[in-house]
User: Fold these one by one.
Assistant:
Number 1:
Amino acid sequence: MGKDFGIRMNGDVKVIELKGKITIGSGDLKMRETIHQALGDGTKKILIDMAGVSTIDSSGVGELVGCYTTATHKGAKLKLMNLPNKIQDVLTVTQLITVFDVYSSEAEAVASFG
Amino acid sequence: MGKDFGIRMNGDVKVIELKGKITIGSGDLKMRETIHQALGDGTKKILIDMAGVSTIDSSGVGELVGCYTTATHKGAKLKLMNLPNKIQDVLTVTQLITVFDVYSSEAEAVASFG
Amino acid sequence: MTEPEQGAVVLWLSSRYENIELVQAALGHVCRLRGIDGEMEHWIGMALREAVANAIRHGNRLDPQKRVLVSFGGDGDVLELTVGDEGDGFDPGRISDPLAPENQMKTSGRGIFYIRTFMDEVSFSRGEKGGTILTMKKDLKTRIAGKGEQ
Amino acid sequence: MTEPEQGAVVLWLSSRYENIELVQAALGHVCRLRGIDGEMEHWIGMALREAVANAIRHGNRLDPQKRVLVSFGGDGDVLELTVGDEGDGFDPGRISDPLAPENQMKTSGRGIFYIRTFMDEVSFSRGEKGGTILTMKKDLKTRIAGKGEQ
Ligand SMILES: Nc1ncnc2c1ncn2[C@@H]1O[C@H](COP(=O)(O)OP(=O)(O)O)[C@@H](O)[C@H]1O
Ligand SMILES: Nc1ncnc2c1ncn2[C@@H]1O[C@H](COP(=O)(O)OP(=O)(O)O)[C@@H](O)[C@H]1O
């Protein structure tokens, strides 16, 4: 819906700042595009900042899993940080919290890539 | 709907600050109550500040006319100030703009009561 | 009320004034989808609020068992709104003119005038089971919304 | 679809994902009228969005001519939501479990799980003319909304 997600570098880590609703028909595809583009130039370290995400529906979660798989296939790592409580709850009930590496600070997250 | 309109004195003029929607079932009755209460203590000069009004429907306009008539019957004067464009437009098309004394500044309005 | 044939968005609401806010929200949604700007939305909203208020008050006489139907339709250039109620209907030809000097200080009687002022085409008809169906159209090509003759 | 018997607020929407936002707005309206807090509204909204998305996508296959019906009802203690579509129906007994290890990395299949997690009672039935009617209830007396087993 016209909204753009921010992208910036922190060292060699590409930080993607999602915002708003990651839901069917709007944010979900935008997220996939943004992450696929980020992976396109050979980046190996992707950190998704979820701080600004208000809602993630099952399509959004599905896309996030898909992006994780794509990243892995390309030899890249995709990690998450700054999960708002409600997003954390959703990843907990879907048991995806154990799949993703999740950090609560950017410094910690960036360091974890090694 | 719980919202209250502000009331303050400017000299011997009672200034009532309306806000939000003056519409059927919520703001319209609240406005009438507030103005009737203000008239209850024998106040003769009432200045309605419309700056914060976003919408006035036909019930709101009707109540305003009713309050004007009540004030007149009690020997009081009821004037309006700070009409947002959209409210001004509504009073214009209903030709009530000629009924009400309307001012664009509080100083001017207060002075007009004499 | 029967199933409306048209209108991409249709609401059925119990007869409570609070529901006017939902109609307003639905209008906002439809306007965003159709690229109608905030200025035009405001004036259409003024008309629509009056129509729904009349359906609730005069049509359904505030009986919460009775429904108000609001439909948003029309094609690219025209927004068509329909408001239906389950009341006894009325004769729109007998509405008094709120601009007539003897009506100027009346506390009511301006709703249909608002509707006619802010919309481009307004018609009343009878529903199958009685009740009023008010159809309002707004030409979306005109730049200035509703203020009409001004 | 036939006239719904209950539900103080009923929406009929064409099958467009954008209309999910209107359903969300209508839920917000109903929650305010019924004193349902923002936390509970959030989780109910998560379930409702999934139900409507399924009706649009799987039920009506994105055919904008087909309608989705959303009804908000129930009494003081229970919020009852109904989502109906004009699709071919399906067998909800054959839904796979998204928590099963072999499904964990799938990109879909979590919608009905969301619904079952965030609502208290969920049932599927067939509409008169085919199509799915999903009925969801939320007990408004429970303090923590939906997160259920946690
Ligand atoms: N949906 C309706 N059903 C029955 N009567 C109606 C309806 N809408 C309007 N009317 C009649 O038309 C009159 C004028 O309506 P309106 O111009 O909106 O002013 P008001 O609502 O302030 O009376 C109402 O008083 C009522 O008698
Ligand atoms: N309203 C519906 N009409 C037809 N089939 C449906 C409907 N809702 C769900 N389904 C079927 O149930 C499956 C699981 O739905 P869901 O759990 O929401 O996951 P997803 O939508 O990601 O596939 C869908 O893939 C679809 O086959």
Note: Strands of chain A lie at 6-10, 13-22, 45-56, 77-81, 102-103.
Number 2:
Amino acid sequence: MPSETLEATGDVRELSYAEAVREALGQAMEADERVFLFGEDVGVYGGAFGVSGDLVHRFGKERVIDTPISELGIAGAAVGAAITGMRPVLEIQFSDFVTLAMEQLVNQAAKIRFMFGGKASVPMVVRLPGGSGTGAAAQHSQSLEAWFAHVPGLKVLQPSTPHDAKGMLLAAIDDPNPVLIFEHKLLYKTKGHVPAEAYRVPIGQAAIRREGRDITIVGSSIMARKAEAAAERLAGDGISAEVIDLRSIRPIDFTTIAESVRKTHRLLVVYEGVKTMGIGAEISAMIAESEVFDFLDAPIIRLGGADSPIPYNPVLEKAAVPQEDDIVTAAANLVRRGEA
Amino acid sequence: MPSETLEATGDVRELSYAEAVREALGQAMEADERVFLFGEDVGVYGGAFGVSGDLVHRFGKERVIDTPISELGIAGAAVGAAITGMRPVLEIQFSDFVTLAMEQLVNQAAKIRFMFGGKASVPMVVRLPGGSGTGAAAQHSQSLEAWFAHVPGLKVLQPSTPHDAKGMLLAAIDDPNPVLIFEHKLLYKTKGHVPAEAYRVPIGQAAIRREGRDITIVGSSIMARKAEAAAERLAGDGISAEVIDLRSIRPIDFTTIAESVRKTHRLLVVYEGVKTMGIGAEISAMIAESEVFDFLDAPIIRLGGADSPIPYNPVLEKAAVPQEDDIVTAAANLVRRGEA
Amino acid sequence: MSARKTDDTSGAQRPNQRPELAALDDETIAGALTRMHLIRKFEEAAEASYMRGLIHGTMHLSIGQEASAVGATLPLEAHDYILSTHRGHGHCIARGAEPKLMFAEFFGKETGYCKGRGGSMHIADVEGGNLGANGIVGGGLPIAVGVGMSIKAQKNGRVCMVFFGDGASNEGAFHEALNMASIWKLPVVFVCENNKYGMSMDISRAMAVANVADRAAAYAMPGHSVDGNDLAGVAAVAREAVARARSGEGPSLIECKTYRWRGHSKSDRNLYRSKEEIEEWRLQDPIRRLEDELKAHDRFDAPSLMKLEEDAQREIDTAVEFARTCPDPDPKDLTRDVYAI
Amino acid sequence: MSARKTDDTSGAQRPNQRPELAALDDETIAGALTRMHLIRKFEEAAEASYMRGLIHGTMHLSIGQEASAVGATLPLEAHDYILSTHRGHGHCIARGAEPKLMFAEFFGKETGYCKGRGGSMHIADVEGGNLGANGIVGGGLPIAVGVGMSIKAQKNGRVCMVFFGDGASNEGAFHEALNMASIWKLPVVFVCENNKYGMSMDISRAMAVANVADRAAAYAMPGHSVDGNDLAGVAAVAREAVARARSGEGPSLIECKTYRWRGHSKSDRNLYRSKEEIEEWRLQDPIRRLEDELKAHDRFDAPSLMKLEEDAQREIDTAVEFARTCPDPDPKDLTRDVYAI
Ligand SMILES: Cc1ncc(C[n+]2csc(CCOP(=O)(O)OP(=O)(O)O)c2C)c(N)n1
Ligand SMILES: Cc1ncc(C[n+]2csc(CCOP(=O)(O)OP(=O)(O)O)c2C)c(N)n1
Ligand SMILES: [Mg+2]
Ligand SMILES: [Mg+2]
């Protein structure tokens, strides 16, 4: 994880992704009494994925608030708290349940500032654990981030490392706009170096995880990690892949991607959400309509989720989203195609 | 409207888009007693846009059902009716309010068949008036169809002519899957030739509205009509534009678009939804990753909605979505760029 | 109008009057009447502007409902919050908004409350404690919960009053919001303006209980059903609910039974109700009722009442003129207000 | 067990017994007990399978809640519908599902009820009247309204029973669904299994009323709160609600007060409740309570009760074995069941 060690300063420990998120929450609440955490079972239960952990014991029930099972209501409560001076951080227990809260996030949170002529702001953060791989089936495994990338007024993040999980959450809490953070459930237990201080990772900047010459692989969330692993294997086959971790999907860091493609002439985009209308479509389209188009030596290939809900059976479940092997194969084909 | 006169047989009248939808509803209800219509104010009020009109008087209150203002509930009711033998047609008064019904449409309607191993089907239709241009501001003017094109299990249509409005609605009612139909509010009063019989326009087929050589313009919903008008003007400037009316955005008729681009070597996609992550992203990406890529002589350009909520002020409102002039300019630039 | 004034007498000096009316001193009454006139005239001018093509979108007029907007907000203090609805002009004016800035918004002008971005359905004045109208039926209800959470966390002693319609009370948002406000004892006052219809849907077809206030029982909160065309009655109930909220005892649900004289919006052909019904309710005009009662008790004479009305008309006329001459927004600023920096 | 049998005696032949128990003849009781055992054994085997790594995802066990699933469904007829929840194994079995096909689903096999696509949280048997478990809390409630609309339109005399938890009753979906079922007098029975917690949230923290059934008042529908660990009591209340639904009088809300012995799901460390509380509720074991009562009235002797339990255990053991040996789905069929053709 080169970029992490690069960005780290001061006291650096190994933390899990979940611990990194918790540390950010704790530091934000310590630093700013406007910050509070709420959601279903974030209190004594410690969060469905153990993210909030002991925070309720550290900050009390007034600042780590268990809510009833009322997703629309709690999203609206975040909006109300945000426009009146608080900095709410809301956890939607599984991102799939955000389907119940779309009204408040899309019609209210995203639009209030604009509708009010810039005279209000809505500084709220929503954390949304998502993704497949846990055998939780179709209603607990979705990757819905693309929807929100379509909504002006929102910011949407997908940190893939413990380092970014902490730094981007702190940046999101500082941000005067509504920010949604999609956290892949399979990442919670992954470990990485995390500085102890309260640092920020700027919103809207992709990270180059590995430099390369032959192909650019843009991955988001867990797919950035899979792309890194795939790049390692591709190197063994003599293919030099540049790996970009998208990190922010609204706004998207077009410049970093464009510069890379200008150099490698080939682009592969990997994401877990359903391929059709997933975030890779936007990245592909951005490149295809830019001046970088002229630098492309091959079609822009997307690897995304299958055209099906996420199945329960683990074999099917794996088949439904891109795997490391798929990335290796697609990248190798693309490089060879360009050479042929 | 060449394709309409081409497809029409038998008794053909001029009807408005709204009348065509109503005729389809009436014919479906006459032919099949499983079909019923429900939604807010679809009864004696006749629908917020007058679409259901007198249907309650023709079919009675048991089949044209006014509902309370409970969007999540009525979407769920459609699911329940569909899986137990009915053919519900639900109107969501403004498509913006579908934000309240996402759970039932996305987690239930779209996934039930799959989650149940193919042992159930969910034959329901949801009609969603959408789009800007009526001064209804940010919460009553959205174009949210791209979200649903991202959801396997759904079908999503955007008919742009009275002919298609009728024929696609009848096809949707026949379809054993959940079908969402986004109707642009500004189209309701537009007129066109509509055959009297109960014909079907197949789901998943785009329509070539005008043949051309220099550039392919794909438009969806009202933008298909604007593209037609723009093509007429472009012809005056010696540019021969092929205009494709997308009509169906899930599934998308890739073949028709690909064949056209293979011929014209240039692609412009026009849609009203927010440009970022709008349906044009998918069309662009589909082409950019296909063999057609090698036929492209210029970048794929998208014209979509601005990166803002829809404003109230009419001047701003117009500026927020592509206009005929924008299409003419973009197409001309693209053709010239390819030639330079 | 400040709330402190309204409590000065407890009606001791006005023994013949019912206590709800007696509780309001003359200054308060004059202020309330002025606002009711302003609302009525605002709506009439809005309608006229629509006819003259000055307005682009649709609008929802609250003529006939003035007592509920003005009465409910009467006990609020300057720093309290309101959240309003699609039928929100009345709430805005009741909360003290300036009609000229409202008209500017209505006409889509850069000088409007929302710089022409919001229009009729989104008028807000966050600084002034009006957290906004809402185009989504029931949309303000969950937001009110969060405002209540803010107030509690900030211990600033404020109250949040959220308006909604009878139709809105069938939205899931209603249920979730009232439940949360109740379990957390938030300082929120839920004011349902039951005007008998959600668009074309008669309340008796839309719900099985007789009163929206009956639903308070599901949240163990007080529910009051009140004649919504009686300014003094509404104010009395609101005073109790606001006091309860402010003292930390939790939320209340108030139902104001009233009626909108106009159609739901401009597309309404009134097919779902009878002329007779409309006529009957016009006889319950909340402004005339209050004026008549005041005259009967000799608290105001006809000329002074007339003056209040004429002053209001003048303010509205000036407001329309102001708004008409204001500049449109510049299209190059389209995305300016999307994100805060 | 058919519902007709349960009504044959009205307890005339069993005068010493409370009427709820007397109303159930021996065959009915034996059938009900068998199902309760099957549920308990199913859950235990599910848990064991999880420990042995045979199961991929999570699961929600209903041990301790058997009387509510079996009692509520007892009055249903073969063609009636149920809709279930994430904690739905019990409802499935109560409705007559075959444990071996349930286990096959649970193990993700092609032979499972959902061909391995759904898993524990989505077991359905549409042909058999089970319209599916649901991973979304409260997700089945609005669907039940539509099922009720179908029944009414088709005039087929069926009833739809929808299960949900205490936590689910704070979802907006609850409110919208109960309201619609009520205004349209739909043949729906709403059965809330109040096991005191929504995951870690104690019901007393999640709502301000004492009983979920109290909320029925907001929809002018009968609300019954019943000891959910008393099979006969639950069945009696359900019989009344089902009869009411079937006769066109409309929906009812039944609240079964019960308790889940296990954690919410496998990740639960029971930090929000005490060992003592769990112990207390274990003493209220719905199966032992019923057995004891039957023995006290000499309706069944110990050996025959033992036999019912052993038979159930055998069926479950066989079911697990069957399921283990079934084939996995073929990845090439991934998208086969997405669309109907
Ligand atoms: C979520 C949502 N559903 C539907 C509408 C369309 N609509 C606007 S106002 C209205 C009626 C609202 O009735 P009520 O709450 O009683 O308020 P009233 O209009 O009577 O003041 C409807 C259906 C909407 N704006 N938002
Ligand atoms: C909409 C939604 N929100 C949250 C969850 C996560 N979740 C699953 S079960 C559960 C608790 C449900 O409580 P209750 O309704 O009382 O049912 P119980 O688990 O007690 O049977 C929660 C929060 C979910 N599945 N769906
Ligand atoms: Mg109303
Ligand atoms: Mg529970």
Note: The interface with chain D takes residues 34, 36, 62, 67-68, 70, 72-86, 88, 103-104, 107-108, 112-121, 123, 152-153, 155, 176-177 of chain B (CB under 8 Å).
